[in-house]
Write a structure and sequence with these properties.
By secondary structure, the protein is of the alpha/beta class. It has helices at residues 17-22, 53-70, 90-96, 209-219, 236-243, 255-266, and strands spanning 3-7, 10-14, 29-34, 71-81, 102-110, 112-114, 122-124, 139-146, 186-188, 226-229, 247-252. Strand 6 and strand 7 form a beta hairpin.
C-alpha cells in the first residue's frame, strides 16, 4: 500500500518508484535530482543492492525513461551515480544507453580533495577502502540529461567571484563585468561531519542537500519549477527544494526513510530548511 505525506509543499510517497512515477502525467516535472542505488551491495533496509549486472542496467534504463516521460520540454535530470572501483564503467554503460534524453553536461561532484603535499590543503572526508589495487574515490558523477541537449541553464546562480579581477574587464570595450564567473563542471560539496551512522539516519549512501540545491539552481528556479526525486532516501533533495521555496515530490521504497524525510521537513524553519 502506498503512503503519501505532504509537509511544507513537499510530497513524500512511499512506494516503488516505477509504479508511482507511472501514475504521474507526462510533462508534469521540471527538474529531477536523484541518486539511485549504485548496485555495489550497500546495506539498505528493504532494497537489495546486488542485482545481476544486466538486470540492474535494464532497471535503471526503465527508471530513467520514466523520468524523461515526466519531464517538461526544457526540463533537466541530474543523475548522481558512481560505481565500485572494480567496475568503474557501469554508470557510463547506463548513461550511454539512454534513448529518450540527451547527455548535456557531465559534472564531477568532488567530495574530498588534496592539493600538493601540504596536509593543511586537504579538504573533505576520505572514505578508505581496504585494497592494494585501487585508490579510494574522491568524486562521483552527476549526469545532466535533457530532452533537447541544448537547454539554457543559470550558470551564474552557482557562480564564483573572479580570482583575478582583471578578468572582469571586457578587453574590447573596457567595460567591467559583474564579479561572478561560472563555476565549471567540478563542484566541491563535502559531506557534513558525523561520528556515528545514526546521525545520517542509518542510510548507507545519502548525498548532501547542498548538492541538490546546486543542481536546482543550475537549472534555474524562475517560474517555480517542480522538483522530483524518485529515490529520495532520507529526503535531502526535498530539504533543498523546500529551502528554495519550490514544490517537490519524493518517492522511496522504504517506509523508514520516508518517515525520516517527513521528520526532516518538519524541522525546517520558516525561512527554509536548515542543513
Amino acid at each position: 500500500m502506498c503512503k503519501v505525506v505532504c509537509v511544507k509543499n513537499q510530497t513524500v510517497i512511499c512506494g516503488d518508484c516505477l509504479i508511482e512515477m507511472g501514475k504521474m502525467r507526462n510533462g508534469s516535472v521540471d527538474i529531477v535530482v536523484t541518486s539511485p542505488p549504485y548496485n555495489i551491495n550497500m546495506p539498505y533496509f528493504k532494497y537489495s543492492d546486488s542485482k545481476p549486472r544486466a538486470e540492474y542496467i535494464n532497471w535503471m534504463l526503465e527508471a530513467i525513461s520514466e523520468m524523461g516521460r515526466l519531464l517538461t520540454e526544457n526540463g533537466s535530470v541530474f543523475l548522481v551515480m558512481s560505481a565500485k572501483p572494480s567496475d568503474p564503467s557501469l554508470p557510463f554503460e547506463v548513461i550511454t544507453r539512454v534513448k529518450d534524453l540527451k547527455w548535456q553536461n557531465h559534472i564531477m561532484w568532488v567530495k574530498s580533495i588534496a592539493i600538493g603535499n601540504d596536509p593543511s590543503l586537504s579538504f573533505g572526508h576520505y572514505k578508505p577502502i581496504n585494497s592494494k589495487r585501487f585508490e579510494h574515490s574522491c568524486f562521483e558523477n552527476v549526469f545532466h540529461l535533457t530532452k533537447l541537449g541544448s537547454v539554457d541553464c543559470d550558470r551564474l546562480a552557482i557562480g564564483l567571484p573572479y580570482k583575478w579581477k582583471c578578468n572582469r574587464k571586457n578587453r574590447k570595450t573596457g567595460e567591467k563585468k559583474p564579479d561572478l564567473r561560472p563555476r565549471g563542471n567540478a563542484w566541491y560539496v563535502p559531506y557534513e561531519t558525523i561520528q556515528r551512522r545514526e546521525e545520517r539516519f542509518h542510510h548507507p549512501a545519502p548525498f548532501p542537500a547542498g548538492l541538490a540545491e546546486m543542481c536546482i539552481k543550475f537549472h534555474g528556479v524562475g517560474g517555480k519549477p517542480i522538483v522530483l526525486d524518485p529515490f529520495v532516501g532520507i529526503g535531502n533533495t526535498l530539504l533543498a527544494t523546500a529551502k528554495l521555496g519550490l514544490t517537490g515530490i519524493g518517492i522511496d521504497l522504504d517506509e523508514s526513510y520516508c518517515d525520516v524525510s517527513r521528520k526532516q521537513l518538519e524541522m525546517c524553519d520558516g525561512e527554509g530548511c536548515l542543513y
